[in-house]
């Protein structure tokens, strides 16, 4: 029989697990908001560079339009049991103006380089200001593991 009891992790363990997931996972839910139409949420591929999340979308997408008006975003990894939520502000780069190292790392991870595609793309860089991580009810207390851009221990 499998043990389903949740063992409460300390902040340092949550940070370690969160950083591992940011490096290894592929998809993130991106939540933006339009001042008139409200929330918008889509999944995008992402790259973690050790400090920030990089994503890319069509320059004409709802997400791109929203972040240009309101750069505050919330990002969520797709596991509802092992929750990781990040909040920050999106810094936007047109596909031909993105830093080369970020674009190359993105292309290496996904085997796709938006800079070579027809149409315009927008890269978004989000440095987290707040990170929350928890597994089940026992970890709700202490779920904030980054505040004001500083990891908590």
From TrEMBL:
User: Keywords on this record?
Assistant: Oxidoreductase
Q: Which GO terms describe its molecular function?
A: coenzyme F420 binding; oxidoreductase activity, acting on the CH-CH group of donors
Q: Does the keyword Metal-binding apply?
A: no
Identify the GO cellular component terms for this protein: cytosol
Q: What is the protein named?
A: Pyridoxamine 5'-phosphate oxidase
Query: Domain named Pyridoxamine 5'-phosphate oxidase N-terminal: which ranges?
Result: 26-134
One Pfam family hit = PNPOx_N
